[in-house]
Amino acid sequence: MATAIITGASQGIGACTAKRLAKDGFDVAINHYPSDSDAQKALEVAEECRALGVRAECYSADVSDFAQCEQMVKKIKEDFGAIDGLVNNAGITKDTLLARMKESDYDAVIAVNQKSVFNMMKHVCNVMMRQRHGRIVNVSSMAGLYGNAGQVNYSASKAAIIGMTKTVAKEFGSRNITCNAVAPGFIHTPMTDVLSDELKNKMLELVALKRYGEPEEIASVISFLLSDSASYITGQVIEISGGLSM
Ligand code: NAP
Questions:
Q1: Is the minimum distance from the CB of 62 to ligand 1 under 6 angstroms?
Q2: Is the CB of 157 under 6 A from ligand 1?
Q3: Which end of the chain lies in a sparser environment, N or C, as judged by fewer CB atoms within 10 Å?
C-alpha cells in the first residue's frame, strides 16, 4: 500500500486530504503543529482514516523548522518503510496592507508557507530518489498566481512555491518523481472563516460558480495528482477556484 505525508493535517484542507487519501487506499502520515489542541484534532483525523481500513499515524513537528522536518521524515520512513506521496499543505496568513505589515509578519508567513516546503522536499526527496518513485503536491494559492491586496507576504510565499514546484519537477523527473501544485481559490476552512462577511461577499462576486469551494474539492484533485492516473503530469499548477480568473 502507498504511503503519503500530509503537513498541517489537523484541520481544514489538510485533514480533508488525509481522509480522502485514506478513502483512496493510502496509508497516511498526519503531521500537525506541536500543540495539545492540534495533537488532539490530528488524533481524531487518524481515527477516521483508520476506520477506512488504512494505517494512519500522527507526527508532531513545526514544518518551518528544518531539523524537526528531518526527524519527522526519518521516523515516518522507519514506521512505514516507504514514502510515496508528500502533500505540503501547512500554511498561515498574517494579512494586512504592505504599508502596515510588520517585518515579523512577513518573515513568519515565509517561514511556514515557503521554507517548510523546502524543508520537507529536501528530506523526502532523498527517500523518493532511492525508491525511484514519488509524487509531491504543493498547496499554493490563487494569490500566488495573481496577487491579492493585503497579502504581500502570503502571495510571495505561494508564488515561490510555484517556482519551487517547477524546479523540483525538472530536477527529479528522471527519477520518476513528479511535483505539481494546486492553487485553491476561496475555500471554506478555518482560515477563511475569520474573514468579514463584507469581504467574503466581495470575493464571491469574482467567482464564476458564485460559491466558496469545499475542502473536499481540493482533496480530490490532490488525490488524483498522487495517483497513477496522473503519472505523466509534472511541473503543473492546477487552479481550483470555481472560475476566479478567466
Ligand atoms: P487551516 O484550516 O488554517 O489549516 C492549516 C493547517 O496548517 C492548520 O492545521 C495549522 O495548524 C497548520 N500549520 C500552521 N503552521 C504550521 C507549522 N508551522 N507546522 C505544522 N503545521 C502548521 O487552513 P486551510 O484553509 O486548510 O489551508 C491549507 C492550505 O491551503 C494552506 O497552505 C493555505 O495557504 C492553502 N490555501 C487555502 C485557501 C482557503 O481559501 N482556505 C486558499 C488557497 C490556499 P494551526 O491551526 O495550529 O495553525
A1: yes
A2: no
A3: C
Distance in angstroms (rounded) separating the CA atoms of residues 232 and 205: 35
Structural domains in the chain? 3-240 (3.40.50.720)
* Cell 485533514 -> residue: 15
- The whole-angstrom separation of Cα 197 and Cα 195 is 7
154 is a catalytic site residue: yes
Give the whole-angstrom CA distance, residue 110 versus residue 225: 25
Distance of alpha carbon 8 from alpha carbon 89, whole angstroms? 6
- Residue 153's closest CA among 108, 100, 91? 108
Confidence (pLDDT) at 246: 76
Residue 134 Cβ < 6 Å to ligand 1: no
Question: Average pLDDT in the 2-6 region?
Answer: 98
Q: Is the pLDDT of residue 80 over 80?
A: yes
